[in-house]
Amino acid sequence: MTLAEKILAAHAGKESVRVGEFVNVKVDMVMASDLTAHIAADQFERMGAKRPFDPRKVVFVMDHFFPNKDVAAAEQIKRLREFSKKHGLLFVEAIDGGIEHVYLPEKGLVLPGDVVVGADSHTCTYGALGAFATGMGSTDIAVAMVTGEIWMKVPPTIKFNYKGKLPAWVTGKDLILYTIGRITVDGALYAAMEFTGEAIEELSMDSRFTMANMAIEAGAKTGIVAVDDKTRAYVKGRTTRPYKVYTTNSEADYASIVDYDVSKLEPQVAVPHSPDNVRSISEVSDIEVDQVVIGSCTNGRLEDFEYAARILRGKRVHPGIRCIVIPGSQEVYLAALRAGLIEVFVRAGAVVGPPTCGPCVGGHMGILAAGERCASTTNRNFIGRMGSPRSEIYLVNPAVAAASAITGRLTDPKEVVDR
Amino acid sequence: MIRGKVHKFGKNIDTDAIIAAKYANITDPPELGKHCMENIDPDFGKRVEKGDIIVATTNFGCGSSREIAPVTIKGAGVAAVVAKSFARIFFRNAINTGLPLLECAEAVDASDPGDTLEIDLSTGTVRNTTKNLVFSAVPYPEFVTELITAGGLVESVMKKMSKEDKGP
Fold first, then answer.
1. Could you give the ipTM of this predicted complex?
2. A3-260 fold
3. Are B25 and A72 a contacting pair at CB < 8 A?
């Protein structure tokens, strides 16, 4: 069995599972956001449930329209606050909060070997910890909240093996964009993507989260990275809960194996309007932008802001460009503050906002007008995703985003640093 | 029997196209339906008639986990979606919200906008009456069929709960 299959088997109470088999699995954490939790709460009440299966294993994170973008969002979040209090759930809002997929790992709420389900498609982010994590809709999540179980079809696992050492300014974001560009947005439909190889071993946990985060953009059920010393070091001190480490038995267990040599990879850009519409930065460096967003569940962690600050230190954002920096959580914000990064951003002319999904999901705090272009470290460049259906989104890594903020066009970080 | 006109779309129709996140606070299905496909086909909400059928190619419903996506399609009056393949979260959400999905590549290739389709959900038969062609959709997995027969996931959990203890 593969790593993913072993986790599902263990949670289904079975010795083994087969690809394509339908199993009921026990869940270790159930998550929903302000965008999806209200429907889950409705279904919970419709089922006549008196309490969640385990309130410590249910978390509602207010992040999409947080801070409340309008009265409707405020009313919905108010209702969820009351629902959470009534049932003793973990309710994450302003105090020590953040974007769900940044917040849950950093608080040790999701661990290696766990099965995690969330009413958000980017729940697959936690696969970076060697967990089986996947997104579902609100009704499935309500059922998991009530019963502690949910049905799943065991996915085949595709192994992605990244050979070679990554060049400077090439990050986990570039690996995943490159991969999606190669296999397309349904290249891993219904499958688990296991990320392995020399380049993955070298990647930080922050970059691994970025990769697992965008597995859904290839249609995958989850993206997963086997536990190593970096994972153990990350988890250490965040929890006292014991966890289990699983590994794939043999190469023969994979449905297929894909090898990429990434030693000469350039920073990658997904151009409108699909995450698989991927180019190298050198092919698109004449495209002018109006806005830059650095943050999100994809690239809102400390390493991302370190990359951006290395570019922006002592420089100025190009006149007319709106550079919006959004730490993924209060913890990341504080770490960036302590490291002096926030000052770098403000002095460079960037605006630093509170943790939120706002601009990425077209909610608030960075909406685009018709004809505007944005270089963004987020995960989706669908039509109208960040505002006007006539706006354009270019998905990039944080260093490219920062370099583009300085020049006003899509820019290879090398160009700015050498100058 | 479902009978309606074809509205044809291409590949990778994402959830932001089906319903933009800015409408996520709306709960009324017909109100959501007015904004269905707004980002890619602004007049769809006005053009679509009750009982019509969306026909699309691959990976329909990719993107977000928002359950309002199938609710929006139903709210617009659409009776079923016929596609070559569906994104997995959308598939689960459609099952849970009662939007019929039919995986039938041949019917997709053979159908043009404005054609009339007749769909028999019990047999998975898709009939293009404009062109006088008949196709068979790929059946749902047995597990999913049983779930639907049981009245859906929520109903089956409720049945289980009424047998057991609902809690103190």
1. 0.96
2. Aconitase; domain 3 (3.30.499)
3. yes
In A185-255, alpha helices (H)? 198-202, 205-213, 229-235
Kindly determine whether residue B93 and residue A137, on different chains, have CB atoms separated by under 8 Å.
yes
Chain B CA closest to residue A190: B88
Domain boundaries, chain A: 3-260, 269-412
Are A3-260 and A269-412 in the same CATH fold? yes
Instruction: Check pLDDT > 70 for residue A418.
Output: no
The CB density around residue A198, as the number of other CB atoms within 10 Å, is 15
Give the global pTM: 0.97
Name the packing angle between helices A398-407 and A302-312 (round to 10°). 30
Q: Which of B12, B68, B87 sits opposite A274 (nearest CB)?
A: B12
Q: Do B154 and A48 touch (CB under 8 A)?
A: no
> Per DSSP, what are the bridge partners of residue A195?
A160
Distance (Å, whole) CA A364 – CA A213 = 22
**Which of A122, A166, A171 has its CA nearest to residue A403?**
A171
User: How far does B90 lie from chain A, in Å, by closest CA?
Assistant: 8
Q: Which of A70, A151, A382 sits opposite B14 (nearest CB)?
A: A382
Q: Read off the pLDDT band of B165 (50, 70, 90).
A: low
Helix, strand, or coil (residue B109): helix
CA dihedral A4→A10→A15→A21, nearest 10 degrees, is -50
The end-to-end CA distance of chain B, in Å, is 44
What confidence tens digit (pLDDT) does each residue in A43-80 have? 999 999 999 999 999 999 999 999 999 999 999 999 99
For the domain made up of A269-412, give the CATH fold: Aconitase; domain 3 (3.30.499)
Interchain pair B59, A380: CB under 8 A: no
Q: Find the chain B residues whose C-beta atoms sit closer than 8 A to any C-beta of A.
A: 11-12, 14, 16-17, 20-22, 24-25, 38-40, 42, 58-59, 62-68, 85, 87-89, 92-93, 96-97, 141, 143, 147, 153-154, 157-158, 160-161, 166-168
Give the integer Cα–Cα distance in Å for A232 and A234. 5
- Percent of chain A past pLDDT 90, that is, above it, reads 99
Report helix, strand or coil for A38: helix
Give B15-28 pLDDT, tens digit per residue: 999 999 999 989 99
Whether residue A120 and residue B65 make contact (CB cut-off 8 A), yes or no, is yes
Per residue in B100-153, pLDDT tens? 999 999 999 999 999 999 999 999 999 999 999 999 999 999 999 999 998 899
- In order of their start, the domains of chain B are 2-137 (3.20.19.10), 139-168 (no CATH)
Sheet of A157-163: strands edge to edge?
Answer: A222-224, A192-196, A157-163, A256-261
Residue A133 host element (H or E): strand A132-135
